[in-house]
Amino acid sequence: MPGGGGARRLPPVNETHHADGRVELVDTKAIEASPLYNHDLAPVPVAERKWTTYNYAALWISMAHCIPTYMLAAGLMATGMNWWQALITILLGNTIVLAPILLNSHPGTKYGIPFPVFARAAYGTFGSNLPALMRALVACGWFGIQAWIGGEALHTVGLALIPGWADLLGPGFAGHTTTEWLSFLLFWGLNIWIIYEGMDVLRVVENWAAPFVLVMTGALVWWAVQEAKGLGPLLAQPGKFHSFGEFLPVFIPSLTAMIGYWATLSLNMPDFTRFGRSQREQMVGQVVALPTTMFVFAAMGVLITSATVIIYGEAIWDPVKLVGRFTSPVVVAISMFTAVVATLSVNIAANVVSPANDFANAFPRYISFKTGGLITGLLGILMQPWKLLADASGYIFNWLLGYSGGLGSIAGVLIADYWIVRKTDLRLEDLYLKDGAYRYKSGWNIPATVATLLGCALAWGGMVVPALKPLYDYAWFVGFAVAFVSYVALMRVAPGGARE
Predict the structure, then answer these.
(1) Is residue 70 a part of any domain in this protein?
(2) For residue 362, what are the CA distances in angstroms to 77, 130, 367, 467?
(3) 3-state SS record for 71-109
(4) How far apart are the C-alpha atoms of 279 and 293, rounded to whole Å?
């Protein structure tokens, strides 16, 4: 019984185990006939796993160089931190989240499987929809946030180039003009169009989008230093916390929110590492690129936000609104074009690939990648991103901190199952079979579901029970620890649940 952590089994006849540890199927006919299979979820043959260290580094650089990353650092400044407090919080958060990212990347490279298929080992062939759809809903929220930011950029271009643009179509509603809503829907529609028609075009654009954003942000840093009369005044900006006792109550939920920022990718990195040429290459690429890129780009956001306090008398944490204050239409148009392109590339890579696969996992025979992308876009609107971005505290303490508890609980179960219970040993073919080793009880592994719900209950309990509020500040940590420990314990006292 491999699920119970006993002696290692002999490889099934239909599996080829390569010397570097990677596994592939000899014959895929059995899984292709299964209702749990479709082309987008299929295991990647070893010959087609070609991503190198450079590819993974480039992936993280392109995803980290985006406006929400800038707003992350700027948002910490807006809540009262000084520059070094904000940067330490971001660096520490990204270093911590790198651990679950790497642990969950391993099965992708070893077996060539995406996240929702990997989740079938722990949750069951049907139960895997629980973590997959929880992750997908968070991605829908991020899709909406990125679409709103892109819409803001289009709206800012309109303000710079078209006289009277703001009131051209009337006052609008919910605190936003009609042209703001139109800009949002135009950018949202552009995303959907690319999902259906232009993915090849987007891949070409992605190659230069991230460097272009870096150049634009570098230009903003130069402007900030010039306007603030040097780096000295920028770094001298004091925070509002004058003691450790004042800082700690804000630092803890902020650190958890930083982890929450990439807690999404800590689950679904197998969607990308399934294409990896080796474990070493995917690990090195991620370790080199994620913490460094986030730190450098966040530092730029910190410097620019410090400058806005000096120049405008307030911390402007949204770079789109900051550029909107510039008077040159050419500068505004070029800057916002960059923002639009970058937001498009990040949105498709980070917020469409995963939920499209997750929705496809729920109904493999009926939902394709394109249909899953459309569902993602529609749910992104329903999650009202304009409210999530209304202020810095809502973005950090409600959105990022809130969902981190649920994703931490899922990460706890996945890591405990793969590394502790199964010791990285999965039956590749059975992950795609309706009546295979991972069917459990009607497709559900009860210990995994119970552990996830326990983690979520304690992580989110502070939202409704005042006595549990301190646990909510540590939401990701609480969810991860409770789910991890309870899953291992439940699998030991109920071995029938793990029987393969």
Answers:
(1) yes
(2) 41, 9, 8, 37
(3) HHHHHHHHCCCCHHHHHHHHHHHHHHHHHHHHHHHHHHH
(4) 21
Reported as a single tens digit per residue, the pLDDT across 135-166 is: 999 999 999 999 998 999 899 888 888 888 88
Cβ atoms within 10 Å of 406's Cβ, excluding its own? 25
Instruction: Give the whole-angstrom CA distance, residue 461 versus residue 373.
Output: 32
Q: What is the mean pLDDT of the chain?
A: 86
Give me the DSSP letters along 114-143: -HHHHHHHHH-TTTTHHHHHHHHHHHHHHH
Residue type, 284: V
Between the alpha carbon of residue 374 and those of residues 30, 146, 195, 216, 352, the distances in Å are: 30, 15, 8, 31, 9
CA distances 337 to 21, 106, 148, 212, Å, are 45, 37, 15, 10
pTM of the model: 0.87
For position 267, what pLDDT does the model report? 93
Cα atoms in the 13 Å half-sphere on the side-chain side of 190: 20
Q: How far apart are the first and last CA of the chain?
A: 6
Task: Give the whole-number percent of the chain exceeding pLDDT 70.
Answer: 93
Domain count, the chain: 1
User: What is the residue range of 243's domain?
Assistant: 2-438
Q: How far apart are CA 372 and CA 28, in angstroms?
A: 24
Q: What is the CA radius of gyration of the chain?
A: 23
Q: Residue 127 falls within a domain, yes or no?
A: yes
Instruction: Answer yes or no: is 467 within a domain.
Output: no
17 strand-pairing partners: 23
Residue 449 belongs to some domain of the structure: no
d(CA 334, CA 368): 36
Q: Are 409 and 134 in contact (CB under 8 A)?
A: no
CATH code at position 300: 1.10.4160.10
